Amino acid sequence: MPVLTLTGNYAVAHAVKLARVKVIAAYPITPQTTIVEKLSEMVEKGELDAKMIRVESEHSALAAVYGAASAGARAFTATSSHGLLYMHEVLWWAAGSRIPLVMAVVTRAIGPPWNIHVDHQDVMDQRDTGWIIAVAQENQEVLDLTLQAFRISEDPRVYLPVIVALDGFILSHTTAPVEVPEQREVDEWLPPRRQPYVIAPETSIVMGNIAPDEEYYMMRLSMQKAMGEAKRVAEEVDAEYGKVFGRSYGGLVECHRCEDADYYIVITGSWAGDAKEAADRVREQAGVRVGVARVRYIRPWPHERLREILGNAKGVIVFDRAVSFGAKGQLFTDTAASLYDYKVSMRGVIAGLGGVDVPAEDMIPVIMDFVEKVEEQGFVYEPSYWLLPPKYR
Amino acid sequence: MPVRLKDLPRKRYGMPGNAACPGCPETMGLRYVKMALGDDVVLVIPAGCSSVIQGIAPKSGINFPILNIVFAAGAAAAAGMKAAFEALGRGDVKVVVWAGDGGTGDIGFQALSGAAERNDDILYICVDNEAYMNTGIQRSSLTPPGAWTTTTWTGKREPKKNVPLIMIAHDVPYVATASVGYPQDFIEKLRTAAKIRGFKYIHLHAPCPIGWRFDPGLTPKIAQLAVQTGLWPLYEYNQGKFRVSPFSRMYRRPEKRVPVIEYLKLQGRFRAALKNPELVKMIEAEVERMWRWIDALEKSLNPAEEARRITGT
Ligand SMILES: Cc1ncc(C[n+]2csc(CCOP(=O)(O)OP(=O)(O)O)c2C)c(N)n1
Ligand code: SF4
Ligand SMILES: [Mg+2]
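^ thats the input. predicted complex w/ magnesium ion below
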């Protein structure tokens, strides 16, 4: 298996090529742009046998790949931030149609003011659309997750579209060594495309016309059930992928030093790397046993898995790189809901919005402060703790 | 080749039980599309009356495969479908968009313009009933001046956006106007378009008894009057050549045209406008404006025919 030095965005492009995608449509937006550029180059050089539709907007990008997928082709798009929001309506349409599709989302802040740096507000805004949402920590995982996304989306137990999220710049534009599987290996592992129906002249299928409210309701329920199945399928695919390609990530949640932890950090995305470092250092320096539960799938939400991991914790500190204004960080809310019947101390930290850097040394004081409070008071519940940028602290 | 009624397929494409109003021009048009193009067709329908006309799942009142899609995305979804058929070795499948005037000239315009500029190999049909009918008769940019809608209570003041001309300006291979009042002309144009590779656009004038306030039995007659008054000229722009279609040729001469008032007075939507001479003048001016464009296009895009016309040969 050759090792290449790839940015996160190029890792996406390599995975798309290996998956033998047939139709691509995308519209440039920083920091996703180099995905479109690379794929265009691959198509024009004849390295990738696919149709590339250079659409005039993201709304059209997703509509075009949705049309292609409905007609039976494996299809792919990628976007970020405002582009993703512009697609929002079509995300619902695609998921509700139960048409397998894969999209890379390079996470980025939303304006105003204009800001091209990383946070998770864009992808969090899609939580309710019926898309499976996986979030990578590093470039190798970007490639692996993108390949796995096709497998999961096209699994008959699932038939839901999948977003693979990678953090803007931190992953998208930073190179790292990435093992790229051989085409032959991927061909053996990834079955030909499956989908629930195809719109073609010989069928008389009408997709998306009006349905009675009761049928509509039942279709919504079937999406919820498919999300439930997707948990199992994602775990299975992760394990199987490990057997074939030598890399597994722990399924829906990756655990770092969870075996003996009293306190846990819950986090998603690239800054989980910083969280792991913070946990290690707190263990070393203060002797507090901290673990990290890195959420790899924010949809379907790994409710059962997180209860297993966090149920006996003394305290859970959730880092959100997004916020639901007037409420809390989204990861915090979901984590708290999963722990509804456990008396676990919690703190929700909102940090890193608009790309504000949050290195391990900035996480450590917030963790230590929380630990001390819990040890002192016994029970702490602080749902929104805003970790201000250094110059405002 | 002229279309003869007896050669058209007898198969039923609009099924009993579809949800259209009586006298609906959209079901008429849909039927002609299938009669013209046969069975190797997939339809893409953005939001509009035709989303509803299909009826209620799991049944469909329209007997062909349809991908319904969000309002703004007709052209984009069709472009994707066509790319998929090509990639899967089925490039012969025709992908047809069937969109309203709102889905075409307003919210869907960006996607339409994009697909036209890319010259995607699809046939885009705008079924123009001159308002947002599905949401209850609101004005669109294609509502004509003077027309009452539920958002223009005293009559629209702006002219009708001339989408076919804008499509010609995209330099696509084929643009035509048509009318549900002239099915043979429409079918012929559909068949001509189907043989051309690249982006094809047909703009179908479709009088709607509900939104225009006329007797449902009069749909074809009103459609024909739009052509006979000169308000809706039928023409064709085929690979750079422009020509007025046979049914419209005689209305080039103003004295042959039916007075616009005859068209207006049959429609409740113009009741207020008819009491306002200024609005009537504005509508009459639309006819002149239309034909000025046509003359200009004919002269510049078809000099040979123009010369024949002038010399009478
Ligand atoms: C994004 C969005 N905005 C608004 C609507 C509501 N809507 C549905 S159909 C329609 C009007 C359709 O008008 P037109 O395209 O002319 O088709 P017609 O109903 O007249 O056939 C509107 C406004 C929608 N479905 N989606
Ligand atoms: S409102 Fe007009 S276009 Fe819509 S279904 Fe009724 S008759 Fe047809
Ligand atoms: Mg309309």
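Chain B has one domain: 5-311.
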